[in-house]
Input
Amino acid sequence: MEGLSANAQKVYEALKKLGATSPNTLKTADDVMRAAKLPKGMVNNSLMELVSKGFAKRVAREKAAGYYLLK
Output
């Protein structure tokens, strides 16, 4: 994927593998961290990168924010 860092690409693939493709299938940063096998800080930075570039959406919830892919 053009314009994404290597970690953001890993996180994108992890979200895809987890099936986080709609608001009904949100995944937390912890879910992504386990699937991508990356440290939580890197996962959070990568999730923010994906959100800022329009690849993913962040949904604030009571406990942990959830993420899903838009593209």
The first helix runs from residue 6 to 18.
